[in-house]
Amino acid sequence: AASLSGRPRVALPLFRELANSKSGRFQTLAPGKIADCLWALGRIDEARKAYERLLAARTYTGDRAVALDRVAEAHAKAGRPGRAIAAWRTLAVEEPLHPLAARAGSRLAGLGHPLSPHDRLARAETMSKARGWDEALAELALLGEELPLELRTLKDFWTGETLFKMRRQYARAGELLVGVHARMGSKAAQAL
Fold first, then answer.
1. d(Cα 93, Cα 72) in Å, to the nearest integer?
2. For residue 3, what pLDDT is reported?
3. The pTM is what?
4. Residue 167 has pLDDT above 90, yes or no
5. Angle at Cα 116 formed by Cα 81 and Cα 132, nearest 5°?
6. Whose C-alpha in 9, 114, 122, 139 is 20 to 30 A from the C-alpha of 130?
């Protein structure tokens, strides 16, 4: 209750006690809540380290995108732009449908490291697989038309795949997928 009511100073020792308990159904939530409390208390570097440990171990039970954003912010404030860029890129590419992904993309662009065409293709693939079809098509449109053949092939594939999954524009989806089939190599069967 202390955590939810905005009292991280009260909640922190309680979560630490819970994390050290031998059993309990909420024990696995405690380490992430400890990191959240540290962040709320302004203990940014401690929070960053806790989030990084949890993300590396894949044991963070909270909102992964929030943790990545906080890690990036902590690195940026500490004058480590390379690490901030890496965390924001991970957030933008791996969690593209999260509300913080757009901000991460903006931060990357502001630091002179905008999302690459490969990043945008990876985002579109993730969006399409998560049924974020409109978002995937918008992401693919950002790639433009002037692309090397390899990237153009992937753009056409994911556009066709997304249109097919949306159950719209079957004819266009079919044209795109059949058109890239011969250039897909070992993944050619996916295009048919």
1. 14
2. 62
3. 0.86
4. no
5. 105
6. 114
For the beta carbon of residue 116, count every other beta carbon within 10 angstroms: 13
CA dist., res. 19 & res. 10, Å (int): 15
Task: Give me 164's structure tokens.
Answer: 């097919």
Q: For the chain, how many residues are written?
A: 192
Which string of DSSP letters, residue by residue, matches 50-107? HHHHHHHHT---S-HHHHHHHHHHHHHHTT-HHHHHHHHHHHHHHSTTSHHHHHHHHH
Region of 158 on the Ramachandran plot (φ > 0 left; ψ -120 to 50 alpha; else beta): alpha
Residue 118's nearest CA partner among 163, 148, 79 is 148
What is 149-186 written as a DSSP string? HHHHHHHHHHHHHHHHHHT--HHHHHHHHHHHHTTSGG
Taken in order 31, 84, 116, 150, is the CA torsion positive or negative? negative
Token pair for residue 136?
């995937």
Question: Alpha carbon of 160 to those of 15, 17, 44, 140: distances in Å?
Answer: 48, 52, 44, 11
Helices 133-141 + 149-166 axis angle, to 10? 160
DSSP 2: T
